[in-house]
Design goal:
Blueprint (H helix, E strand, L loop, with lengths): L5 H8 L24 E6 L4 E6 H10 L7 E4 L12 E4 L1 H10 L16 H12 L4 H8 L3 H9 L7
Antiparallel strand pairs: 1-2, 3-4
Helix pairs in contact: 5-6
Length: 160
C-alpha cells in the first residue's frame, strides 16, 4: 500500500528508464549530490515543495511507508537506480558497513587526514619490537603516542 497520490506516482515513474527486472532502472530527472535522483512533491494548501531522493520514494511506492530514520541502500551500488528490487532498508551503521564492503570508504594512507603510510606503520611495529618507547616513536613519526599503541596492538594500520 503506497501513501502517495496516483498523480505523484505516475509522474515519478515517468522519470524512470525501466529496463528488465534484474537491471538498474536509472532516474532520468534532476539529481542531488553524488548522483542520487531528486523528486519534488508539492503538498498542502500553500503548495509547499518537499524534496525527496528518488530511490527512497521508489522504495516507499513499492513497499509502503517505513521508518524515515532508516537509509534506503542499493545492492547495485548505483545511486541513480530506483529499481525496487535493488533497494533495501538499513541503519546508518548498515550503510557504513555497506560502503566499506564495497570499497567506498577511504582508509589508511588514502584517507584525507592520514599522517602515516603503511610502510611507516610497519616500521613503527619493527622499532617497537626492538624496544623503542611509544613516546619516542610518536615524536619520530609526528603522531600521538596512543596512535603508536594502537598500531602496535593491531587496532589500526592493520596489514591487509
Amino acid at each position: 500500500m503506497n501513501m502517495e497520490p496516483r498523480s505523484v506516482i505516475e509522474r515519478f515513474w515517468s522519470g524512470v528508464e525501466k529496463r528488465t527486472p534484474e537491471k538498474c532502472w536509472p532516474w532520468t530527472g534532476s539529481k542531488m549530490g553524488k548522483g542520487y535522483g531528486a523528486f519534488d512533491i508539492w503538498r498542502g494548501a500553500g503548495r509547499q515543495r518537499v524534496r525527496t531522493s528518488s530511490h527512497r520514494l521508489s522504495f516507499k511506492i513499492a513497499f509502503g511507508p517505513f521508518d524515515e530514520r532508516l537509509h534506503v541502500l542499493h545492492c547495485c551500488d548505483n545511486p541513480a537506480c530506483v529499481n525496487p528490487s535493488h533497494l533495501f532498508l538499513g541503519t546508518n551503521l548498515d550503510n557504513i558497513h555497506d560502503a566499506m564492503s564495497k570499497g567506498r570508504v577511504a582508509h589508511g594512507e588514502n584517507h584525507w587526514a592520514s599522517k602515516l603510510t603503511m610502510d611507516q606503520a610497519e616500521e613503527i611495529r619493527r622499532l617497537r619490537s626492538l624496544g623503542m618507547s611509544y613516546g619516542q616513536l610518536g615524536k619520530q613519526f609526528g603522531v600521538h603516542r596512543m596512535t603508536i599503541v594502537q598500531i602496535t596492538k593491531g587496532e589500526c594500520w592493520k596489514k591487509v
